[in-house]
Specification:
Number of strands: 12
Order of helices and strands: EEEEEEEEEEEE
Helix content: under 10%
Strand content: 25-35%
Shape: globular
Radius of gyration: 16 Å
Structural class: mainly beta
Number of domains: 1
Distance between the termini: 29 Å
Number of helices: 0
C-alpha cells in the first residue's frame, strides 16, 4: 500500500517545515535549517537567487515554530514578515498583552519578535496569523554555531 503524502499545505495539525519542495520526502522528514540574512539583504521583489533573501513561504499558516541554537550569548535573531498585499518586508511584532496594567495604546501591547543573547537551544511558537512569507534576520555577527530551524502549522 502506498504511503500518503500531502500535496498541499491546507490546514495542518502538526508543524511542517518551510521547504517549498515536498516531492519525494521520506516517511520521516529530516529537519531543515533556514538561512538567516542581514536586514539590508531582504528582497522586496522576491527575486533573489540567494538563500533566505526572499524569506520563506508560510502558505498563510497561523503559527511559526522555531528552534534557535547557539554556543554563546552573542547573537540575535529578528523575525520579519511579508504580505503580498503590501509587497514589503517589516519587523514582525507579536502580541504580549497588557503589561502591568499600564498599557494605554494598542502599540504598547506588541513587541518586536527579536530574540537576544541566545545560548543553548530555544524552541518557540509564534503567532503569524496569515503572513505570506517569513524571514530570519541576524545581527551580522553569526558564526557556524548559530542555527535556526523553522516550521509552520494551523493549530
Amino acid at each position: 500500500m502506498a504511503t500518503y503524502r500531502a500535496s498541499s499545505w491546507g490546514r495542518t495539525r502538526r508543524p511542517k517545515d518551510l521547504r517549498e519542495d515536498v516531492e519525494g520526502l521520506a516517511d520521516k522528514q529530516t529537519a531543515v535549517q533556514v538561512t538567516t540574512v542581514a536586514v539590508g539583504d531582504l528582497e522586496n521583489n522576491l527575486n533573489s537567487a540567494t538563500a533566505g533573501e526572499n524569506g520563506y513561504l508560510t502558505e498563510n499558516q497561523r503559527y511559526l515554530h522555531i528552534m534557535i541554537q547557539d554556543d554563546a550569548a552573542d547573537e540575535n535573531l529578528t523575525l520579519y514578515g511579508y504580505n503580498y498585499a503590501f509587497g514589503k518586508w517589516a519587523t514582525l511584532y507579536i502580541p504580549v498583552g497588557v503589561k502591568n496594567g499600564a498599557d494605554t495604546t494598542a502599540e504598547l501591547s506588541y513587541v518586536a519578535a527579536t530574540f537576544t543573547s541566545i545560548a543553548g537551544r530555544k524552541m518557540l511558537t509564534i503567532p503569524i496569523h496569515g503572513i505570506d512569507r517569513i524571514a530570519f534576520v541576524d545581527d551580522g555577527s553569526t558564526d557556524a554555531e548559530f542555527k535556526v530551524w523553522a516550521a509552520c502549522s494551523t493549530f
